[in-house]
Amino acid sequence: MTTNAGPSLRRQFAIQRRVIWAMVMRETITMYGREGLGVLWIVAEPAMFVLGVMVLFSFMEANYVNNISPAEYLAVSYPTLLFWRNGTSKTTKAIDVNRALLHHQPIRPIDVVYARIILTFASGAAAFFVLYPVFTFLGITRLPYDWFDFAMGYLLVIWFSFAFVMIMSSLSELSESIERTSHIILYLMLPVTGVFFPLYVVPQPYREWLMYFPLIDAVEFFHAGYFGPRMPTYYNLGYTVVVLIGMTLFGYALAELAIKRVKIMGGA
Q1: How far is Cα 186 from Cα 173, in angstroms, rounded to an integer?
Q2: What is the DSSP string of 130-159?
Q3: Which residues cross the membrane (predicted)?
Q4: CA-to-CA distance for 209 and 193, rounded, in angstroms?
């Protein structure tokens, strides 16, 4: 008597982990190449964005409370948009353009998306964790007022970014219109992300309306961890977590539809 049992769940997880890691390495070489700075562009590219924006806005008159300068505010806030903005840009139509890879059995369509998300999120996080200690050493930023809230706020931003990128990536596979308008959507989001101005400067009732957007709640919580009592912050954590759970489930449901469409089109 023979058995035809497949690999255990643990072994399947190990296989997919190796597949995703191999794809991350492949995407790293594809995006950043081997010449010049090579893989160091993973940090250098987003870091240049952060520094460029800080320099531009440093010419503004400081008008935040408690002498918080635009440079300090942006050094903390601007890196948060690297996750959802760069993640969306890098994963749009990712499955479709990598369709040839799907003929290799171990590679699942969702692995292509995971690999690009991991790479872009690692790039954004690396830029922040390299620049932040330097800014603190130079006196531009300070140590967080509350390390736990600081870390949890950062993780909430990453969670929002993951769910948002999954939704946008899947929609781009289902509709060509999303692929062509995604950059417009990302730019239109900028004023309502809490990156360029804190929520306390927004008058009511608009402030309350903005708090229905989970990203600005997450950024405000992140601000609360960093600035503490130096800056008034507004957020609703319970609401934000519930919405993020819904967004994550919606993102996976859309990803299933997108993968089925790719298979119907003959991709796998």
Answers
A1: 17
A2: HHHHHHHHHTSS---S-HHHHHHHHHHHHH
A3: 39-60, 113-135, 147-172, 184-202, 234-255
A4: 13
SS3 category, 69: coil
CA gap 88, 10 in Å, rounded: 30
Residue from 152, 220, 229, 150 nearest 192 by CA: 220
User: 231 near 194, Cβ under 8 Å?
Assistant: no
- What pLDDT shows up at residue 162? 95
User: How many CA atoms lie less than 13 Å away from 44 in the CB half-sphere?
Assistant: 7
What is the number of helices (H) and of strands (E) in the chain?
A: 11, 0
Burial (CB count within 10 angstroms: exposed 0-12, middle 13-18, buried 19+), residue 237? middle
Q: How far apart are CA 178 and CA 185, in angstroms?
A: 9
- Cα 122 to Cα 7: distance, rounded to the nearest angstrom: 30
Which residue, among 237, 213, 214, has the nearest Cα to 224 in the 3D structure?
Answer: 237
Distance from C-alpha of 63 to C-alpha of 80, rounded to nearest angstrom = 21
Cα end-to-end distance, the chain, whole Å: 33
CA 100 to chain centroid: 27
What's the rounded Cα separation, in Å, for the pair 202 and 146?
24
Rounded CA gap, 106 and 220, in Å?
Answer: 41
Q: pTM of the prediction?
A: 0.86
Question: Given its phi and psi angles, is residue 203 left (phi above 0), alpha (psi -120 to 50 degrees) or beta?
Answer: beta
